[in-house]
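Case study.
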Amino acid sequence: MIATHPASRIIVALDFANGARAAAFVDGLAPGSCRLKIGKELFTREGPQLVRRFVEQGHDVFLDLKFHDIPHTVARACEAAASLGVWMLNVHACGGRQMMQAAKQALAETHSQPPLLIGVTVLTSMGRDDLTEVGLDTEPERQVLRLASLARDAGLDGVVCSPREAALLRQEVGENFLRVTPGVRPQGAALDDQTRVLTPAEAVREGADFLVIGRPITQAANPLAVLSDINRELAAV
Ligand code: C5P
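After joint prediction, the assembly is written out as follows.
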C-alpha cells in the first residue's frame, strides 16, 4: 500500500553517509510534512531494508536510482522497486521509448497502485561540450525538451528538471506531466554546490510540482523548523 500525502510538495534528499544517520533524521519527521528521496549512495550502502523501514513508517519514498539498461532489465528492476512500496522511481529517458514503455507496463501489470515513474533527461552536470563529446551535437535545453517529450509519449508521469526549465517544459510538453525539481534554496540559505537556484515559491510559480531539497533541511540546526517554514511558504503560493 502506497501512502500519499498530497499536501506536501517537498521531497527531502536523504544524502546521509549511512542508514543510522538517515533513520535518526527521519524518526523526527511527521510523514505528512514531506516526502523522502533515497539515492544511489544510501541505497548501495543500506539496501532495500531502509526503504522498507521508511515506507512502513508511513513515508512516501522516491527511490532515485535512475535505471538505464535494456528494456527487460529495467522493467524487472522497476517492478522490484515498486514491490518495496515506493511512491516514485525514475529511469534515464535516454534509455529510449522501448525501455520506458517496458518499465511503465511492468509497473501497471504488477501493481494495482503503481508508483509514479519519472524520467531523467540531461543531467545538469552535462554542458554543451559534454554532449558533443558523447556524440550529441545539440544544446542541452533542446535535448531536455526532446527527451521530456519522448518520456511523455512513452507514458511516463513526469521528469526531473531544473526549476528554470519548468515553465518551458510546462509550455512545450504539457501541464499534466510532473516536474520534479532540485536546485531549490530558501531565501538566504547557503547555495552549497548548487549554482542557479530558485526559492521554493519561485520554483512552484515556474511550474514545479515537487521540490527536491537536501542540505538546507538536513544540515539545518533545526530541520523541522526549516521544513515547516518552507511548507508555509508553499501554502501561500
Ligand atoms: O542538498 P541539495 O538540496 O543540493 O540536494 C539536491 C538533491 O538533488 C541531491 O540529492 C542531488 O543529488 C539531487 N540532484 C541535483 N541536481 C540534479 C539532479 C539531482 O541536485 N540535476
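Observations recorded in class. The radius of gyration is 17 Å. The chain has one domain: 10-235. We will return to this complex in the next lecture.
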